[in-house]
């Protein structure tokens, strides 16, 4: 938490201390090559079969490059959202309360407070200090995110600040920035549907006849501020105001050293500069959050005019690329409550219990699963499917409706529901004219996509799931653990349960069989013999 004499909210150092106190921070003091080892090491906790709750933030204290040069700064990966618990620590709220915090902050913004000094200006580099190997950007231990594919170390955990040249309203977005020289990098201001805030500023500055646009790239903001970049707030909303709403007090800001921008006073590092409005420069390849490598494209060069930082800064880096990743956790925790609120409150769809954005490999944007109560009317299910498909332009290409016994994070369970609860000719709809959205194919190339909606809910009662019921599975698990057999990682469904078509007589017979009294069941069935039916005729006891 925040320290005495602090502005009233935790900075990154406070946050890391809290993560360590909770056992959510892994320190790595062994020498680690930032270009070939750092991100792959953290990646293993996302692809090594570990449960989400087991993931941690990794703090690297001894960083070198391939030539053996050691860096004086530390790097942390996963500090904002290696898992949901870490995200909730940064938000100061339980996971289930995070959307309420966002809603309150957006409705009750608190403007920032301009202060004369901030820790982000404890060390200042300008002029000749930015020139040459080991200086400027080259003094920062920025990792290569996808060794083997990426063409440069890239800033990923950024809060990129620009300002509207007409209104004076700032924007703060998370955009990747590829290092090109000690005093030059290239910014990719991803154009979401309608245009990202920073890119709209770029267009406005260019249209006004300017040759450059002031820009500041902030690394290591206080968590309340850091979460602003990936959150995708409405265009025109000043993220510092919403961050103040989260913190409950004004966020302290300082004036830039070389650019007319307000910067978070408690940031770890600030890179100031001017974005060229006349020339573009090739940037990438880079492993993207949609799970494919983004190939080279022309993006925005930025000439660095100053680098400032606090004493002993820690540089954050997002682990992104193929989901699950830190960036997908950040988006998932933020987006899923928005979808649920849209369906339940805005559209008034009945029976909706949960909306889940499929994370592994598809990266949240392509597959949406809506969980409905059993026996929800068919009209409500289809209203929910249509509502989810068109809530966000880049989400919901494939929307699936399931009942609440299906774990939306278990692809096997989803396929089970599709296989036995869905009649494709009646329960699938295909809709044309969908944009490509964020992915390896781009809308700019003129290729359209389409939408598929699937109702994989039960249309009536079905027989139970054919697994031992919960009490017997739990009894067996106790024995398993007493025998010190390999650690279990139960995946739902791991026990059988009723799906509606199950009579009390069958329940009683099962109880007798499980307690060694099957002969009584035989005596009962003997009384029900008939000679007027064929084999496999259905029988339902009175």
Write the layout of secondary structure elements.
Elements: H1 12-21, E1 25-28, E2 32-33, H2 38-47, E3 57-60, E4 63-64, E5 74-77, H3 84-91, H4 98-107, E6 113-114, E7 123-126, E8 154-155, E9 158-163, E10 170-173, E11 176-181, E12 184-188, H5 197-207, E13 212-219, H6 223-226, H7 228-231, H8 239-247, E14 252-255, E15 262-264, E16 269-276, E17 281-283, E18 286-287, E19 293-294, E20 297-309, E21 314-317, H9 326-346, E22 352-357, E23 367-372, H10 378-389, E24 398-403, H11 411-421, H12 424-427, E25 428-434, E26 449-455, H13 470-482, H14 504-514, H15 518-526
Parallel strand pairs: 1-3, 2-4, 5-21, 6-14, 23-24, 24-26
Antiparallel strand pairs: 3-5, 7-20, 8-11, 9-10, 9-13, 11-12, 12-20, 13-16, 14-15, 16-20, 17-20, 18-19, 22-23, 25-26
Helix pairs in contact: 4-8, 14-15
């Amino acid at each position: 938490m925040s320290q005495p004499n602090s502005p009233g909210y935790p900075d990154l150092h406070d946050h890391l201390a809290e993560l360590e106190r909770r056992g959510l921070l892994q320190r790595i003091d062994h020498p680690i090559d930032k270009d070939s080892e750092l991100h792959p090491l953290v990646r293993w906790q996302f692809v090594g079969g570990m449960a989400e709750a087991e993931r941690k933030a990794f703090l690297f204290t001894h960083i070198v490059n391939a030539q053996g040069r050691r860096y004086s700064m530390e790097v942390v990966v996963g500090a904002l959202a290696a898992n949901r618990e870490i995200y909730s620590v940064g938000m100061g709220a339980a996971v289930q309360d995070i959307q309420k915090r966002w809603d309150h902050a957006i409705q009750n913004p608190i403007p920032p407070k301009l202060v004369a000094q901030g820790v982000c200006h404890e060390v200042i580099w300008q002029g000749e200090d930015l020139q040459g190997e080991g200086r400027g950007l080259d003094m920062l231990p920025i990792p290569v995110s996808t060794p083997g594919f990426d063409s440069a170390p890239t800033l990923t955990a950024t809060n990129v600040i620009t300002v509207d040249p007409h209104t004076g309203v700032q924007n703060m977005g998370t955009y990747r920035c590829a290092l090109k020289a000690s005093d030059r990098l290239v910014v990719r201001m991803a154009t979401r549907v309608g245009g990202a805030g920073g890119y709209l500023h770029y267009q406005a500055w260019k249209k006004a006849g300017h040759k450059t646009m002031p820009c500041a790239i902030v690394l290591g903001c206080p968590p309340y501020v850091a979460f602003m970049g990936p959150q995708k707030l409405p265009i025109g909303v000043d993220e510092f105001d919403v961050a103040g709403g989260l913190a409950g007090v004004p966020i302290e800001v300082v004036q830039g050293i070389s650019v007319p921008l307000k910067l978070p006073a408690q940031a770890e590092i600030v890179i100031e500069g001017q974005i060229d409005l006349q020339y573009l420069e090739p940037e990438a390849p880079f492993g993207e959050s949609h799970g494919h490598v983004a190939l080279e494209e022309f993006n925005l060069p930025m000439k660095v005019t100053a680098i400032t930082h606090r004493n002993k800064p820690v540089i954050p880096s997002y682990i992104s690329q193929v989901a699950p990743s830190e960036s997908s956790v950040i988006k998932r925790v933020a987006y899923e409550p928005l979808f649920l609120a849209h369906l339940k409150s805005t559209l008034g769809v009945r029976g909706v219990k949960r909306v889940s954005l499929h994370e592994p490999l598809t990266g949240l944007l392509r597959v949406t699963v809506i969980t409905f109560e059993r026996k929800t009317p068919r009209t409500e299910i289809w209203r929910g499917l249509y509502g989810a498909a068109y809530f966000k332009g880049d989400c919901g290409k494939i929307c699936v409706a399931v009942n609440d016994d299906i774990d939306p994070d278990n692809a096997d369970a989803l396929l089970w529901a599709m296989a036995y609860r869905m009649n494709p000719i009646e329960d699938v709809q295909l809709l044309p004219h969908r944009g490509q959205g964020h992915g390896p194919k781009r809308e700019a190339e003129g290729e359209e996509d389409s939408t598929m909606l699937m109702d994989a809910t039960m249309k009536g009662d079905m027989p139970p799931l054919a697994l031992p019921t919960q009490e017997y599975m739990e009894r067996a698990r106790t024995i398993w653990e007493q025998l010190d057999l390999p650690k279990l990682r139960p995946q739902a469904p791991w026990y059988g349960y009723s799906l509606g078509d199950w009579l009390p007589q069958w329940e009683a017979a099962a109880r007798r069989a499980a307690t060694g009294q099957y002969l009584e069941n035989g005596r009962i069935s003997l009384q029900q013999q008939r000679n007027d039916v064929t084999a496999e005729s259905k029988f339902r006891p009175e």
